[in-house]
Structure formats: structure tokens, C-alpha cells
Design goal:
Layout lengths: L1 H22 L16 H23 L7 H6 L1 H44 L10 E6 L8 H16 L4 E7 L9 E3 L1 E2 L11 E7 L3 H5 L3 E4 L13 E5 H7 L9 E3 L9 E7 L13 E6 L9 E7 L3 H12 L11 E3 H44 L1 H9 L4 H31 L14 H24 L6 H6 L2
Parallel strand pairs: 5-10, 7-9
Antiparallel strand pairs: 1-11, 1-12, 2-11, 3-5, 4-8, 6-9, 7-10, 8-9
């Protein structure tokens, strides 16, 4: 009970520090995470687990103490040998259990880490580096389309003349932030009611592709000549082109994407790359881009700027530049696009970090368990090992035997742990991306790591064998 109490105290202090560190991580943005604290219920839970653990694991060896007298106990060597075997069986069982849990956690963490790496290396369809966005609300006195478009033009003109700004554009939606969709179709295409393709609509100004770093696959992008008096036009992504015009050239086709049968179609003037706008793990779906100056867009817009300036300096410069024409600028709505991407990856990053920490603790516990069991075994067999050395056994032979004992325990634990990990990993299917729940590389790495840990943990007690003097061991036998 005293040992478990000390362990609980140390564990509580580590957990207290870990919670503070997790809550302050800027790379992890999980709702309400900064408000999480170690409180009285958490402390009570820690104490309760310590008491139960100390009682259960202290009761097991206590029940093995014989009720016979000390004199009878000293004479009964057979009973002592049986007790030693029972103790060894219990210790080995605990070590195997630790390795099983370590194997399960390591395999799960390995699968999630590989999934996370796959997510981070995805082609997003746009380049978030060196780009930022600032929310721009129209002034309240701009009541018609012409006035609003004139205001948007002034915003773009001012920003594009700023030093270090290479591109600027306006959009009603940022990737990974929000969405709206309508049913879309193409002129001459027939779809059953309720089976129209879903199109995600983007209303953007000229220069948007350059500001976002979205590749233009074919055709042209929007220009300042795409206004209310010109022909209605649209850009589509590759998925839309394949969906509506499979095997055909999408340029020049007519797309119906206004969300109403009363709207006329728009001529497709360009095809752009797919952008992962819903989430990092989801494909883009069908995207349709419409010119800002051909739409009556009176809601909030985002000003996207590509620049070499650091985010803080860019935010200050934008506010100074736009204050004369946009005094009600939302100063708290500035965000770097890379931060938007990092925020979308935060839940996955948090789970990976948490499970990796648990895995590390499990591996440390498994190593300590192997170290303790092998150390105890070497100490109990001190006389036997001394006799074997006196009869000609070499130190290396004895050390190899001790290492094999540890590796046998590790092998049993890893065999059982691999089966348990296989079952556990099947429940991680919704969290995995680009990797299967039975990924052979992950399971092989798990086995290799545990084998190395077991070997290192057993090697130190094995070294003690070289310090055994046969004469001393024979005198104490």
C-alpha cells in the first residue's frame, strides 16, 4: 500500500504537468482543452486506484504465507521451492501482461502516426504557405450590387499595391472552414429527381487562383471583365468535369449551378485542381467557382493575401491600409491559412500525441517489469550460477541463458499482444487514413521495438553474473 501510494503521488504530479502542457500546446486546437484541470475528483480517482492496486497486489503474496511455525518453515525446503515457483509464475504473468498492453498501445499508436503522416503529406489542392485571410464585411450603406462591387474593387486595388503582396482576392468561403452546396447539372444532361450531383459553390474574385495557389488545369481564370453585363461564366474542378462531361472537354460547356431552375446556365471557361475543402481526409467532391462581380453577394467575404510578410506584420498592414474604406473591419478575424490547415489536423494530432504518450509509459513499465523479474531471478539463482561456473560454465553462456529467459517472456507477451492489437486496431478503422488496420510494417515495428526493449532491460541484470565469484557462492550454499 505504501509503494502504490508513492506511485500514485508521482503519477498525479506527472499527470498534472502533462495536462498543463497539453492545454498550452499551440499546435493542438481541441475545444475546451485549455480549460481541463486536475481537480478533486481526479485526485480522488488516483487515490482510489492506488488503494485498490496496493490491496490486490499486496494480498496475493500475503495469502501465500504459511500458517506453520517458523521452525517447520525452515525445515520444509520443498514448500519453500513451491513458493518460489508460485512467485515466479505470478511475476512472469505480470510481465507478460505488461508486454501485451504495451504491444496493443504501440500498434495503435503506430497506425495512427502513419495515418497522421499520410494526412500531412496530402495534396490539398492549394498552397497554405505564405497566405493569410482577413474577414471583410461590406459597409452598411452599400445597398445595391453596383455599390458593393465598387467597394470590393477598392479593397482589392488598395491591397494589391501593398509592398510584399504578390496576389490578393476575395472569396465567400475558405477551405476547411465552411461550406454551402447546391444541386448541379449540365445543359442536355438528365438526372433522376434526387440524384443530381452535389456541387460546392465558391464565389470568388479575379486573382483567387493565384492568391490560393490553386493550379489552373485548362482554360482561363476570372478577370475584371467578368461582370454583371458580360456572359455568365464559371470554373469547375476536375471532379466536376469528370462527373458532368466524362470523356469530353469541359471548356465551353454549360453548367447549371444556381440552385434554382429559373437561373440561366454558366459557360465553363476553365478547369482547376481539386481542393480538399471539407476536411483533410475527404475528397473535394464537385466544386464550382463563380465570379464575385457576377453575383449579388452581400454577406461576409474573406480577403486572401499571398505575401512574404510574417502574419503579425501583414495583419497590421492590412488594417492600416483598409481602415479608410473599411473602418468596421473585423480585426479578430485574421488567420494564416497554414493555421487553418493545422486546426483541421488538430483532433487527429491530439489523439496521436495522447496515445503515443500512453504507449511510451507502457513500454517503460514493460521494461521495468522485465528488469525486475530478471534481477530477482539472478539474485535467487546466485548459488546455482556460482556452482555452474565452478563446474566450467562460462559467463557468456550464463548471460545468454538469462537473456533467453527474458526473450521467452517477451515472445509470449508479443504473441498474445499481437492478437489483441489486431482485434483492437479493427476498432480504429474510422481514425485510420491511407493505412489498413493490419498494416504489416506497423506490426513488425512494434515487435522489433519491444524485442529491443526486452533485450536491453534484461542485459543489465545479466551483466551482474560476471560479478559472481564461484567460491563465495559455494560458501553461502
Amino acid at each position: 500500500m505504501a509503494l502504490s501510494g508513492c506511485g500514485a503521488l508521482l503519477g498525479f504530479l506527472v499527470a498534472f504537468a502533462a495536462v498543463r502542457v497539453l492545454g498550452g500546446l499551440s499546435a493542438v486546437k481541441v475545444p475546451l482543452l485549455p480549460t481541463v484541470r486536475m481537480d478533486v475528483p481526479a485526485l480522488a480517482f488516483c487515490v482510489l486506484v492506488a488503494l485498490i492496486s496496493g490491496f490486490v497486489f499486496g494480498l496475493a503474496p500475503a495469502l501465500q504465507i504459511p500458517l506453520a511455525s517458523v521452525h517447520e518453515r525452515l525445515k520444509d525446503t520443498t514448500r519453500a521451492a513451491t513458493a518460489n515457483k508460485r512467485h515466479a509464475w505470478l511475476s512472469n504473468t505480470l510481465v507478460v501482461s505488461e508486454i501485451v498492453f504495451a504491444c496493443v498501445l504501440l500498434a495503435g499508436a503506430g497506425l495512427l502516426v502513419r495515418s497522421f503522416i499520410n494526412v500531412l503529406t496530402l495534396n490539398l489542392g492549394f498552397q497554405p504557405e505564405s497566405a493569410a485571410a482577413l474577414r471583410v464585411d461590406r459597409a452598411a450603406n452599400y445597398s445595391n450590387v453596383a455599390e458593393r462591387n465598387a467597394f470590393y474593387n477598392r479593397v482589392l486595388e488598395r491591397v494589391r499595391t501593398m509592398p510584399a503582396v504578390t496576389a490578393a482576392a476575395l472569396t465567400n468561403m475558405l477551405p476547411l472552414v465552411g461550406d454551402r452546396s447546391w444541386e448541379i447539372t449540365a445543359q442536355g444532361k438528365l438526372f433522376k429527381p434526387g440524384h443530381f450531383p452535389e456541387g460546392f459553390i465558391r464565389v470568388v474574385s479575379d486573382g483567387y487562383l493565384r492568391a490560393m495557389g490553386i493550379p489552373l488545369i485548362a482554360g482561363r481564370e476570372f478577370t475584371q471583365r467578368d461582370t454583371l453585363t458580360s456572359e455568365p461564366v464559371a470554373l469547375v474542378n476536375e471532379t466536376t468535369a469528370r462527373t458532368l462531361w466524362p470523356g469530353q472537354n469541359a471548356i465551353g460547356q454549360i453548367i447549371m449551378a444556381e440552385g434554382s431552375k429559373h437561373h440561366q446556365g454558366r459557360r465553363v471557361i476553365g478547369v482547376v485542381a481539386d481542393v480538399r475543402h471539407r476536411s483533410l481526409e475527404q475528397d473535394s467532391g464537385c466544386e464550382v467557382y463563380m465570379p464575385l462581380f457576377q453575383k449579388d453577394e452581400d454577406g461576409q467575404l474573406y480577403l486572401v493575401v499571398r505575401t512574404s510578410l510574417p502574419p503579425a506584420a501583414l495583419a497590421a498592414s492590412l488594417r492600416t491600409t483598409l481602415r479608410p474604406i473599411a473602418p468596421e473591419l473585423a480585426t479578430d478575424e485574421f488567420r494564416a491559412l497554414q493555421a487553418v490547415v493545422d486546426g483541421a489536423a488538430s483532433p487527429r494530432r491530439f489523439i496521436v500525441l495522447l496515445l503515443s504518450c500512453f504507449s511510451l509509459f507502457a513500454v517503460v513499465l514493460a521494461a521495468l517489469g522485465i528488469y525486475a523479474v530478471i534481477s530477482y531471478s539472478v539474485n535467487q539463482r546466485r548459488t546455482e550460477l556460482g556452482i555452474r561456473m565452478a563446474l566450467g560454465a562460462t559467463t557468456h553462456e550464463l548471460q545468454a541463458g538469462v537473456l533467453l529467459q527474458a526473450l521467452r517472456l517477451a515472445g509470449v507477451g508479443m504473441l498474445m499482444g499481437s492478437v489483441a492489437a489486431w482485434v483492437f486496431s479493427r476498432g480504429l478503422g474510422s481514425l485510420l487514413f491511407g493505412v489498413t488496420s493490419t498494416d504489416p510494417l506497423t506490426f513488425s515495428a512494434t515487435v522489433l521495438i519491444l524485442m529491443v526493449v526486452a533485450t536491453v532491460a534484461a542485459y543489465l541484470p545479466a551483466l551482474w553474473i560476471s560479478r559472481i565469484e564461484p567460491q563465495s557462492a559455494l560458501r553461502t550454499s
